[in-house]
Structures are given as structure tokens and as C-alpha cells.
Specification:
Elements (H helix, E strand, L loop, with lengths): L22 H8 L7 H8 L4 H15 L3 H10 L1 H13 L1 H9 L17 H11 L3 E2 L10 E2 L4 H24 L11 H27 L8 E6 L1 H4 L9 E8 L3 H17 L3 E2 L12 E2 L1 H10 L3 H7 L3 E5 L1 H15 L8 H14 L17 H15 L11 H10 L5 H25 L12 H10 L10 H24 L2 H8 L2 H5 L2 H11 L4 H12 L3 H19 L4 H14 L5 H8 L3 H9 L3 H9 L21 H12 L5 H24 L5 H31 L5 E7 L1 H4 L9 E9 L5 H20 L9 E2 L12 E3 H11 L2 H7 L3 E5 L1 H15 L7 H17 L18 H15 L11 H10 L5 H25 L11 H9 L7 H24 L1
Parallel strand pairs: 4-5, 4-6, 9-10, 9-11
Antiparallel strand pairs: 1-2, 3-4, 3-7, 8-9, 8-12
Length: about 1000
């Protein structure tokens, strides 16, 4: 801030930031107008308000008279004193006035060079100010003191002594703004202010004893309990001090003494508030210990136990005060077992915030959004819920509690560090605002009050950066810290784990063996001993990880208990935890990120398919968290995934590595889609489209890798272009989890290439693609099926486009024409693929439609399929593919209508079953009711078929008999309450009605 070239000359008032007209005269009065005063002047310019500081110093010089020369000499040589004096004078007009009122008190600012006074020194000083001594029979550390001064004299003496100590602390706290003095940590300031409050009320109580018992010894044992910030020893410069009184006996004398202490304290120091006592301001001011306990045991509300978290014996009868704290503390740590404890605390915070006028919420740093209360409520709620089983959380102070929560694994270290930093920053701002005029305030200056913001920025040690002046930096820091507090508050304060943990008994929280086995059996675990072994392994994962698992497991076990297979889910959670044991993000995510834990348990306890996939693709679990518009599982665009798979595989020349890269992303996408499906976040068509897209991408990647490798091996160029045509469900974009990929390979010789050589090369490529995709893997299989090619499995795997054209034009059987209805280009040379589809259009959508002979043949084949294709032992009512009203029934009906009418209805030129049904309805080929019945049957059967694969982990089309597996299928299929009976009844009803439509449509 000080230009080096300017240090040798006396700076003008304007350059020092002095704008008042009296500045020059005041500088002259102080004798600071020569070059010897340059360093003093530059120090003055760093004061938060240089004009205020100069004005205060001028007043001090006038009152000191000849004594000014001594102070002036000290200021020129003692940088520490200069920093404290200038910072105090420029930060607090109230403490500046106090200094000027007795100007020789500047010497007090030289006493805090080494250290601040101890609690005992503060108490001795405050007692000495009113001449207080221990009653006869008590030693110097006795419980009862009697003051020499009473009345107005006592109040003046107490106020003066209190302001002296406040001035000493503030000067040390502020000094770093002017000179390079050490910054006094927030916790030291809060503790010093609390110690000073204890000392002040000890002295006030000594006066109250003298007033209440003027002629004899004190006959009442009175303990004063500090609550709130004073109880936590994190007091502000200007704050109410909340107290509770305990007396033995609780009589009129005790009440008078307590009331007198409050009156004296409120007149001399700060507002002494006893509103946190039982029944609030309507309750008795003083109660016996037994009366307090009776109230808390029977009548106390949730907020009162939250307040007791900070209770501390501060003065008066030390033994009685400690007895009170010892008696109420156990009640605090079981309060979270009260019904609706967590929602009540959350509702209380919302009410506090709503009390702040809307126009002040952004300026209110104590109660508004992203304020001190957000931190305090979040920390206290976490303490109260988890402190039942962990004594290390029994801390009164917010910062100490944050540290304990982080050490215990209840919140992340980074979250704790960020909350602590933001909390201390806002407390610093609060302190500076209050010091200015020694007024109780928590309001930031209005945004348009640049001068006030400039003063606050300088008082808070803000320095300009490359983009903003100090005021801009302050505004930026206030906004950043408020946003950070609000974000972390929302994540911690509304964490779903809290309410669940609060409902559990203490045995469950500590996971004792006997109670754990009982709990596990009650929750539905069929092998509780095995489950207990998994719990032991999880808790034994290491000090911090084990503590976090201990925190999570009671709730996770409860959530798993609501799933179809909690035993398998717990085993999967253990495997997953061990797989990612070295990755810190996993447990942090499960603990901190909203619904992640509950969603993960639902998935692991429901799906054998996902239990395998997630262990190999754990990163997907990050998507279980909520984003700005909903679950992140829905933020992934299948089109982007398709491109990412191709891009990832293209990085490798080795086709095995290229396909492995594609498999990895496929695994990730399968885990994402299946998780979203189980959680009810995706509809059936969305699932099918996503699965079809990822299948097409992997096929494309395998084909591209095989071609690139072959060309590199051959040298030169490829002798043919290749396209892969999707058939069946792949062509229709309707793949399920257990579906194979039906495809056709088509090639076209390059210019000048021999047809036979081109086809031979293309066959080798097709064979390589199938082997690459079919290689052994822990992932769900990648089976490529070419059985729908011309002549079926007896025909060549690859043909040229012209060969396909010749075959279909001359020899195509009705079933082959029907199969072409689902043909769609999915991989390879796009131009070749489109030309294949244009050729296919002439076959599948012929002028005038297919012949009646072809229609009769389709009906004959369908009848044969119904009679012969159903697997042995399968139930025709519940086979999702070939059963009554199942997928085959619906799809054959739609395809028959396509064959008969697509030549005149372009909308039927579509490979999607559902979109064709829409076109059938629009063209009135069926009644709207029949179309809807077919659509519902197709969706119901597809959903059930997918759910079967998810539950069992392998392809299957047959719904099981009523029992555990069917219940799991019902739950995964999203059936309300997972009722297997209702699910099966609905399936049978929907498919029965669809079968009636099929019979009418196929017979007409």
C-alpha cells in the first residue's frame, strides 16, 4: 500500500485516505507534519477508518496535554502499540470514546504484548473493581464474594473495568489490520470474551450478595449456568448472555439475589437473559436442582434439550452448578430418541429463518440463509443424533464439535474444514460490526453504502486482489461463504440418515453382537450370523473407515431390510466397500450426499444383475446423488454415451484393448440404466432405447477395431465396405437386459476389388467381431446372433448388397420379409447401410401390400410358434415372450398389420412396436381401446421381462411361481408395495385382454 518512492516525503492527507476538513489541523496538533512522522502517517492510513482514528488521537492528545509527548514517542518506536492503538481508534468509536474518557488508559494497550489475561486474572480484576472479597470462612477461590461497592458506584466501576478489558482484547484482535501483528484466532477471542463474561457476572453476583444479605452471611446456594454462546465459550463482543439459575433453597432471597445480579449485569456489561429457563419468561426465575430435573423429564420440548447442549457452570456455587450440568447432560444425549426429533429441529431452523424479513435475509449473517445459524443447527443436530453412542461428540463449542464430527467420520474432513473456515469468517465479520459502536448487530451494511463496506473490509483484514478492491473482495467472500454454508447445511442438516439413526436404539448404534443378531432377524435377514460377519468386516476396515461404517450400517441395514434380498445386498455392499477401499469418495458420498445411501441399498438388495455390474463399475454410484434438476442418473444423454464409447475405443490400435474400452463404458451405462430403472426413474421405452444405443455403440466399436486391425495387418486399404444391420429388438430400439443382438452383415467390394475376395475378407471381419464381442467377461454377455439372415443358419453370414437384393427379390420367404420389418442400420458404413434399407423397403413395403398367401403363411407360422416354441414346462399364461398376450403376440399382430397396410400408410414404415401402434391407432386400423390394450400388454411384459433379468442376473422369460422371487420381480417392476399377488393378477389380466385383441386381429 505504501509507495516506496513516497516514504521519504510527508504524504498529503488525501493520499492517507483522510477526507475530513479537520484532518490537516489534527495532524498539526499531533505534530505529525514533518518527515520524521512519515512512517506513523502510513500506519495511520492503514487504519480501517483513518479519519476516525485521527480524530480520536487528536482528542486523546488534547486530554493528555503534556503527557502526549510520552505516548507520541512510544508510537514512533513501538510498532505493536501503534498497531493496536491505530486499529482500535479506527475501528470502534465506542472504545475510542472509552479511551479518551480516561486518557492515561493508553498504557493498558501496552500490557497485552506477551499474552492476554487468564480467566483467573480477569476474575480477580473484576472483583477488585468493586472491592469484593470472599465471605468469612471462604478462601480466595470460595463460592461467595461480598462487594464493598453497591448501587450506581458499583455499576460505574464494573462498567469501567469491563470496558478496559474489552478494549485490551479488541486492540489485540484488530492490530493485524495496521501492522504485521499476529492475528488472534477466533476461538481465542470467543473464549476470552466468555471468560470476561464469567468474571463480570462473578463480580455482579458479589454486589447482589451484598444487597440481598446486607447484615449477615449469604444463606442461599446459587449457581449460575451459562447457556448459548457463553456456555460454549464462543461469545461475541456484544451479545446477550443467556443464563439459568439453580438454587438451594429456591426462596424469595434466592430470587432476589438472582434478579439483582441480572439487573447489575445488564446495566454494567450486557443484557443478562434468563429466557432459556424452564417455561421461559413465564417460569420461575430460580428453581432447585430437583425442580429443574422434574421439568426436563416431563415437560421439556426438543429445543430445550438442544439449548442444554451448551450448558456450563459459570459462577456462583461451583458444586451445585456442576451437579446441575452432570444431571442434565445425560438427558441431552438421549433427546434424539424423542418422536419426530429430527423433523422438529429442522422445522425450528426454518421458522427462525422465516422470522427474518425477506428484504434483510441476504444481509443477516446470524439468522439468514447461509448464516451462522445454519452452521450451528447442522452441527448441533449431528451431535445430538450421533452423540448418544459417541462421547467424543460431547463438545459445547461449534468449532470443536465440527472437529470431533470430522475425526469420528460423521462428516468429511473437507466439509468440516470448509464449514469451520466459513463460520469463523462470518464470526469475524460479526465481531467487526459489533465493535464499531459496541452495539448488538448482525446486519451487513446495505450494498449501496460503499463507505460502510469499505470500513468493514479494512477492519476484516481484506486486501485488494487483481480484480477487486478490498470492498469487492469482501462482498465476494461474503457471498462465497454464505453459498458454501448453505450448500453444506442442506447436505448435512437434511441428510436422510439422521432421522433413521435417531429412531434406532443404542444397542443397534453400537452393533453389539446379541442385539445385532436380534435386529437383523427382525429386519428380515435370513442368515443373521453371516450378516454379522459382514458387519464385523466392514467395521474393521480401518480406524476412520470403520467409524464411518459404524455410523452408516444401522441405517443401511434398515433400508436393506425393506428390499427383496437383504442378505445378498449386504454381501454386495461389503464387496463394493472392499473394492473401493482405497478411494475416499465412496464412503463420503454414501454418508453425505442426500439419497445416495438409500438408493444404493435399494439397488443392491433388489438386483443380482446390478450386484455384479456395480462392483465392476462403482463410479456409477456417484450418479445416485441429486443434481440441480433431479437424480444425476438422468443427466446422461445416451447419444453422448454412444459417442464416448466410439471415441474411447478408437484410441487403441489393438482390437482387444479397443473392445475392452468399449466394454468398460458399456458396463458403466448398463449400471446407470439398470439403477435408474430399479429406482423408478426411467420408463420402459427409455430403458429400451438406452440399452439399444449402447449395444449399437459397442458393435460399432468392435467393427471399427476389427477393420482397422485387418487393414494394418494387410497393408493398403480395405477391399470392401461393411455395414451391420440391426434386426429384431436391436433394429426396433427395444432391447432388454437379456436380449441378444440380431444382426445382418452386408458388404460392398471396393472399386477394382474382386467380389469373392471382398466377401471372404468381410466374413473374416464378421467372425472377428463376433469373437471380440463374445470373449469371456464378468459383464453381461455380448451375444451377436445372425440367425435372421437369408436362409437362416444355413446361409452365408455375409453377403454383398446385390446378393441380398437378388435373394430377397426372388427367394424371400414370408418370415424373412417379416423379419425385415425391424431392419435398421446400426454400425459400419452408413451409406451402405442406408442403401440396404432402401432395398429392404421394396421387399417389406411392396406396392399393393403383401399377398394374401403371405398373410396366410404368417398366420400359419404364428400358430406353429404358439404350439411348438414354448419351452417345455413353461406356463403359457406367464411366459413374457411366447405366452398368452405376451411380447410375441403383440409384435406379430403389429407386424401383420404393417405387412398388410404399410404400402399405403407411411407412418407404418417404422421399426418400433410402440410407434407402429400409435400409427395403427391414428389410421383407425384398430379401435383406440384395442390399441391401448396391446400397448399396455407390451409395456407390462417388457417391464416384467426386464425385472426378471435384473432380479435373477441372467436372461429368462418365465415369471416364477408365487414366492420370494416373484415378490422381488414385482418390487423391481415398480409394483406398489411389491405385492406379488397383485402384480401377478395385473399381469394376467392385462395379457388376457391383449390375447383377445390378438385373436381378433390375426383372424381378420
Amino acid at each position: 500500500m505504501i509507495p516506496p518512492s513516497s516514504r521519504s516525503t510527508v504524504p498529503s492527507p488525501g493520499r492517507l485516505g483522510l477526507v475530513e476538513a479537520s484532518a490537516a489541523a489534527n495532524l498539526s496538533l499531533l505534530g505529525w507534519t514533518d518527515e520524521d512522522s512519515t512512517e506513523l502517517l502510513w500506519s495511520l492510513s492503514r487504519s480501517p477508518d483513518a479519519d476516525l482514528a485521527l480524530r480520536t488521537l487528536a482528542r486523546l492528545a488534547e486530554d493528555l496535554g503534556d503527557g502526549w509527548s510520552e505516548l507520541d514517542a512510544r508510537l514512533r518506536t513501538d510498532k505493536s502499540l501503534r498497531g493496536r492503538m491505530f486499529a482500535l481508534a479506527g475501528s470502534s468509536s465506542a472504545l475510542g470514546d472509552h479511551l479518551v474518557s480516561e486518557p492515561d488508559k493508553w498504557r493498558l494497550l501496552t500490557t497485552c504484548t506477551e499474552s492476554l489475561p487468564t480467566a483467573d486474572e480477569l476474575r480477580e480484576s473484576m472483583l477488585a473493581s468493586v472491592g469484593a472479597v470472599a465471605e468469612a470462612g471462604d478462601d480466595a477461590l470460595g463460592q461467595v464474594f461480598r462487594a464493598e461497592l453497591t448501587g450506581p458506584k458499583a455499576i460505574i466501576a464494573l462498567r469501567t473495568a469491563y470496558r478496559d478489558h474489552l478494549m485490551i482484547l479488541a486492540a489485540a484482535d484488530l492490530a493485524a489490520t495496521v501492522e504485521n501483528e499476529p492475528v488472534v484466532p477466533y476461538e481465542v477471542v470467543g473464549r476470552q470474551l466468555s471468560d470476561l463474561a464469567d468474571a463480570a457476572l462473578t463480580a455482579a453476583l458479589s454486589v447482589a450478595v451484598t444487597v440481598t444479605f446486607p447484615d449477615g452471611p449469604c444463606s442461599v446456594r446459587l449457581a449460575v449456568i451459562a447457556m448459548g454462546k457463553c456456555g460454549a465459550q464462543e461469545l461475541n463482543y456484544v451479545s446477550d448472555v443467556d443464563v439459568v439459575f439453580v438454587a438451594e433453597p429456591s426462596n424469595s432471597l434466592a430470587t432476589r439475589m438472582a434478579g439483582e445480579m441480572m439487573r447489575i449485569g445488564s446495566s454494567a456489561f450486557f443484557e443478562v437473559d434468563a429466557a432459556l429457563r424452564p417455561e421461559g419468561k413465564q417460569g420461575e426465575l430460580v428453581r432447585t436442582l430437583d425442580s429443574h430435573l422434574a421439568y426436563y423429564q416431563r415437560w421439556a420440548k426438543t429445543w430445550e434439550f438442544q439449548a442444554l447442549l451448551k450448558a456450563r457452570a459459570m459462577t456462583g456455587d461451583a458444586e451445585l452448578g456442576q451437579a446441575y450440568v452432570d444431571a442434565v447432560t445425560p438427558m441431552v444425549w438421549v433427546a434424539s430418541e424423542r418422536e419426530d426429533f429430527v423433523p422438529e429441529v429442522q422445522a425450528m431452523r426454518r421458522r427462525v429463518e422465516e422470522m427474518v424479513p425477506a428484504e434483510l435475509r441476504e444481509r443477516e449473517i446470524k439468522l439468514g440463509r447461509g448464516s451462522l445459524r445454519d452452521v450451528e443447527f447442522a452441527v448441533q443436530l449431528l451431535q445430538l443424533v450421533h452423540g448418544r453412542a459417541d462421547d467424543s461428540l460431547h463438545e459445547r463449542g461449534t468449532v470443536a464439535a465440527l472437529s470431533a464430527l470430522a475425526t469420528g467420520g460423521y462428516i468429511g474432513r473437507d466439509d468440516a474444514a470448509n464449514l469451520t473456515a466459513s463460520y469463523e469468517f462470518l464470526r469475524l465479520i460479526e465481531h467487526r460490526l459489533q465493535l464499531q459502536k459496541l452495539q448488538r448487530t448482525h446486519l451487513l451494511p446495505p450494498d449501496d453504502d460503499d463507505e460502510a463496506m469499505r470500513w468493514l473490509a479494512r477492519a476484516a483484514h481484506m486486501r485488494p486482489d487483481g480484480n477487486h478492491d478490498a470492498t469487492g473482495v469482501l462482498r465476494q467472500e461474503i457471498r462465497r461463504n454464505a453459498q458454501r454454508i448453505r450448500r453444506l447445511h442442506a447436505r448435512l442438516f437434511y441428510r436422510p440418515l439422521l432421522e433413521s439413526v435417531a429412531r434406532l436404539d443404542s444397542d443397534s448404534l453400537r452393533l453389539s453382537s446379541d442385539s445385532a443378531i436380534r435386529q437383523l432377524s427382525a429386519l428380515g435377514y435370513s442368515a443373521p450370523q453371516n450378516a454379522l460377519g459382514h458387519l464385523s468386516a466392514l467395521v474393521g476396515m480401518g480406524a476412520r473407515k470403520g467409524r464411518i461404517q459404524s455410523l452408516l450400517l444401522p441405517t443401511l441395514l434398515e433400508w436393506l431390510g425393506d428390499t427383496p434380498d437383504p442378505d445378498a445386498g449386504l454381501l454386495a455392499y461389503r464387496r463394493l466397500s472392499e473394492e473401493v477401499a482405497e478411494q475416499s469418495w465412496f464412503l463420503r458420498l454414501v454418508r453425505d450426499e442426500g439419497p445416495v445411501a438409500q438408493r444404493l441399498m435399494q439397488v443392491l438388495g433388489s438386483s443380482e444383475y446390478l450386484r455384479g455390474v456395480l462392483v465392476n463399475a462403482p463410479e456409477v454410484i456417484r450418479l445416485f446423488a441429486d443434481g440441480s434438476t433431479g437424480p444425476k442418473l438422468l443427466d446422461v444423454d445416451p447419444t453422448e454415451t454412444y459417442g464416448a464409447i466410439l471415441k474411447s475405443s478408437a484410441r487403441y490400435d489393438d482390437p482387444v484393448r479397443a473392445v475392452a474400452a468399449a466394454r468398460s463404458l458399456r458396463r458403466y451405462e448398463l449400471a446407470r440404466v439398470a439403477s435408474a430403472d430399479i429406482l423408478g426413474l426411467l420408463e420402459v421405452p427409455e430403458v429400451c432405447r438406452a440399452l439399444s444405443s449402447v449395444w449399437a455403440a459397442v458393435i460399432n466399436a468392435a467393427l471399427d477395431a476389427a477393420v482397422r486391425a485387418s487393414v494394418a495387418e494387410r497393408g493398403g486399404t480395405a477391399p470392401a465396405s461393411i455395414a451391420i444391420i440391426g434386426m429384431g429388438r436391436l433394429g426396433g430400439g427395444e432391447l432388454g437386459y437379456g436380449s441378444d443382438a440380431d444382426v445382418l452383415f452386408v458388404c460392398e467390394p471396393a472399386e477394382g476389388a474382386d467380389d469373392s475376395d471382398a466377401v471372404k475378407w468381410a466374413n473374416a471381419i464378421a467372425d472377428r467381431v463376433r469373437k471380440l464381442l463374445g470373449s469371456p467377461s464378468q459383464d453381461p454377455p455380448l451375444e451377436v446372433d445372425t440367425g435372421l439372415r437369408p436362409e437362416g443358419r444355413n446361409g452365408p453370414v455375409v453377403r454383398t448388397l446385390s446378393a441380398y437384393d437378388a435373394y430377397y427379390s426372388q427367394w424371400a420367404q414370408p418370415w424373412e420379409v417379416q423379419a425385415l420389418l425391424r431392419a435398421h442400420q446400426v454400425a459400419g458404413d452408413q451409406d451402405l447401410g442406408i442403401r440396404f434399407l432402401l432395398m429392404a423397403d421394396r421387399i417389406r413395403y411392396p406396392e399393393g401390400g403383401v399377398s394374401e398367401d403371405a398373410v396366410r403363411e404368417i398366420r400359419r407360422i404364428k400358430a406353429r410358434v404358439d404350439a411348438e416354441r414354448l419351452p417345455k414346462g413353461a406356463d403359457p399364461k406367464t411366459h413374457t415372450k411366447l405366452g398368452r398376450g405376451g411380447l410375441a403376440d403383440v409384435e406379430w399382430t403389429v407386424q401383420l398389420l404393417q405387412l398388410r397396410h404399410a404400402h399405403r400408410i407411411p407412418a407404418l414404415h417404422n421399426t418400433s412396436t410402440l410407434e407402429c401402434l400409435d400409427a395403427i391407432g391414428a389410421a383407425e386400423l384398430m379401435s383406440p381401446g384395442d390399441v391401448d390394450l396391446l400397448r399396455q400388454a407390451w409395456l407390462t411384459a417388457t417391464k416384467a421381462r426386464n425385472a426378471l433379468v435384473l432380479v435373477r442376473g441372467k436372461p429368462t422369460d418365465q415369471l416364477p411361481a408365487p414366492g420370494k422371487v416373484l415378490s422381488a420381480v414385482a418390487q423391481v417392476a415398480g409394483w406398489p408395495s411389491g405385492d406379488a399377488g397383485e402384480f401377478l393378477d395385473n399381469y394376467l389380466r392385462v395379457t388376457r385382454r391383449a390375447k383377445a385383441v390378438v385373436e381378433r386381429a390375426f383372424g381378420s
